[in-house]
Amino acid sequence: MGYVVQDSRDSLLGINLITNRPTADYVALGGRFLLDAVASTWVHWVIALAGVAVIVLGGILADFALYRPMGVHAARTVWMLALVTLTILYVVKSRRFDLPYVRMSDLLEKPPVCETNPSRQEHDIWERFLCSRDDHTLLNLMRSKVGVDCSVVPGGVAILPKDITTARPPVGAGAAAVLKQQLHSRLTIDQEFTVNIFGTALVMYLALVLCIAPGLRTVSTLTATLLRIILLAMVVVNATTLPVVYGKVILPTRFPSGRIMYDGILASPQNPRILQASPRNRACLILASDDKFVTFYDVEDNVFVQVKREKVYFIDADETADLVATRISYYLQNSLCGGS
């Protein structure tokens, strides 16, 4: 599970970290996912109560429909109808709560905050994710550059009319005008993740109920085996997408912040064709560090750097900073997104 979470976060950021992580780190990351999932249900207890009620109601309806006495033909028909219903539920849940998050990638390479081509739902998720960083510099830039007000509740995002923004109207203002002054969502990122937890639990529970329901015994052994494989595959895929979503939008993106001094490679002033080692002292965010490599985000040059451990003289990082907020703020400050 920890591997899935880490790979999901790397996919979101658009960086491929070469690390020598021990297995214990991935186990700890998987444990963090479980603890954060439990904590989310406690924080958003109203959603949790509603989710439990839906699961209990689903269990009662499944028991009544699948386990009451009936003929062979009726049992087979009811079981197939239940399978179709579960498939529809799974598709709706996946398209609404999984797929838009799974598609999030390469955030640090080219942030999509200025794009108007993505669907409203996907663009909404990007904006709510950036608003959830809770960084004043980024929030002000979101308001002035792309006309997104992150202070609106409960969804936390609204498109501003042109006369409120301090810069020129956003690129594609015609498309944005359709959504202006409208809440993009009624749920925050954390609340939607809590809904996803109970949606995942409901799909898994109903799939397992169908695996052992009497109606499955009314078909041939081969058919029953194939149907059980399909249901178990649905359970596995459904369960795997939850840590993927967690790694994309829930796992914090704060990293140690400070300075690093290392041997860099620069062109010789006398002959640009000759490369030579030159000590560099840079402000940075440390993304990963092990006995082989140190990977960091150079705040001064706004680039990602990975150097061998033996080339690093010292690392002084006594604070933390949000990588996403730092990178996106730089992108908005130096782009023509909604203004100059």
Task: Write structural notes for this entry.
By secondary structure, this protein is of the alpha+beta class. It contains 10 helices and 7 strands. The protein starts with a helix and ends in a 7-residue tail after the last helix. The chain has helices at residues 2-13, 23-43, 45-67, 72-102, 120-131, 136-146, 173-177, 189-212, 221-250, 323-333; strands at 148-149, 158-159, 254-267, 275-289, 293-298, 303-308, 312-322. It is elongated, with a radius of gyration of 25 Å.
List the helices and strands and how they pair.
Blueprint: H1 2-13, H2 23-43, H3 45-67, H4 72-102, H5 120-131, H6 136-146, E1 148-149, E2 158-159, H7 173-177, H8 189-212, H9 221-250, E3 254-267, E4 275-289, E5 293-298, E6 303-308, E7 312-322, H10 323-333
Antiparallel strand pairs: 1-2, 3-4, 3-7, 4-5, 5-6
Strand content: 15-25%
* Biggest sheet layout: 5 strands, antiparallel
Total helical segments? 10
Spatial strand sequence of the major β-sheet: 6-5-4-3-7
Class from helix and strand fractions:
alpha+beta
Average predicted confidence as pLDDT: 78
What helical percentage do the residues reach?
Answer: 40-55%
- Give the overall silhouette: elongated
The parts where pLDDT drops under 50 for at least 5 residues are 157-183
**N-to-C span:** 44 Å
Helix and strand string, N-terminal first?
HHHHHHEEHHHEEEEEH
Give the beta-strand count.
Answer: 7
Over the alpha carbons, how many angstroms does the gyration radius reach? 25 Å
